[in-house]
Design brief:
Blueprint: E1 2-5, E2 13-18, E3 24-29, H1 33-48, E4 56-60, E5 65-69, E6 73-74, H2 77-80, H3 83-94, H4 110-120, H5 124-135, H6 138-141, E7 146-147, E8 156-158, E9 164-166, E10 173-174, H7 178-181, H8 191-205, H9 210-234, H10 240-258
Helix pairs in contact: 3-8, 4-9, 5-10, 8-9, 9-10
InterPro entries: Aminoglycoside_PTrfase, Kinase-like_dom_sf
Pfam family, one: APH
Protein name: Phosphotransferase
């Protein structure tokens, strides 16, 4: 017995099933190499370190399918920037990356930038401002910190006992904590929101410069624009026009307001 496909932006089909015992489970297939190996290599260690992820129930290596624990309750956009989730991300970012694990390689190529700019058709000034963000983006990718790479509110859930769970690990990789912090802020965010979140994260982690982290969050916000537009276009998602229209409306003013953080 199956329900709707729950996948929004990914390639894999995500289905809510009821198994032979009457238990609701998630089946995800076909998953990429990064996520398949994440559940077999990293998930157990990270769970023991305080990063709660869905339990792996079974896997089929030939079909590249995973059957996972169903996480029944949503986490709202307001909740996602709370200290409980920041503490979970601190645990992830502090954990020492294993060279044996399989990672998604994060980066902001000029090709991806120009493809997104072609689709966005921004005014010339705005396009140049976004190019400046790309020129400063290497700071995001030189870290060895583990990152989920996709920490938006839709990828968090709660168990019945209140445990907060992070799922969708196809972009599991290494980089600046800002890669995971930027999606916690609604919309494109503001300078004050970046500084506030960076300060709270640094207070919890005790190991970073909040002003530098706020700058990286702003750069990550700009990078995510290219990532979202490129993925939606390449995967032929019907939601692409909605995102293009939203960014066309909001990006020019955001770039004017935040550009001096670089």
């Amino acid at each position: 017995m199956s329900a709707e496909n729950l996948s929004r932006m990914g390639v894999a089909r995500v289905v809510l099933l009821v198994d032979e015992t009457g238990r609701q489970i998630i089946e995800k297939s076909p998953v990429g190499e990064v996520e398949y190996h994440f559940y077999h290599q990293a998930a157990g260690e990270l769970s023991r370190a305080g990063v709660t992820v869905p339990k792996l129930l079974s896997a089929d290596p030939d079909l590249r399918s995973l059957r996972l624990e169903y996480i029944p309750f949503e986490v709202s956009q307001d909740e996602v920037s709370g200290d409980k989730i920041l503490a979970t991300l601190c645990c992830l970012h502090r954990y020492i990356a294993s060279p044996q694990w399989v990672y998604h390689n994060h980066g902001w190529s000029e090709y991806a930038l120009e493809q997104s700019l072609r689709l966005l058709a921004l005014p010339g000034k705005s396009a140049q401002q976004l190019r400046r963000f790309q020129q400063y983006s290497d700071v995001l990718f030189g870290y060895q910190s583990l990152v989920s790479g996709d920490s938006n509110a839709g990828n968090w859930g709660k168990r019945a006992n209140g445990d907060v769970v992070l799922f969708d690990w196809e972009r599991f990789g290494r980089g600046s904590p800002a890669i995971d912090l930027a999606p916690l802020i609604k919309g494109m965010g503001t300078k004050s929101a970046f500084f506030d979140l960076a300060a709270r994260y640094c207070q919890l982690s005790g190991q970073c410069n909040s002003n530098a982290l706020a700058r990286e969050i702003a750069i990550a916000k700009a990078w995510i624009v290219t990532e979202v537009i490129t993925l939606l276009y390449e995967r032929e998602k019907t939601t692409l026009p909605l995102y293009l229209n939203w960014y066309k409306e909001h990006l020019p003013d955001w770039l004017d307001n935040v550009g001096n953080m670089l």
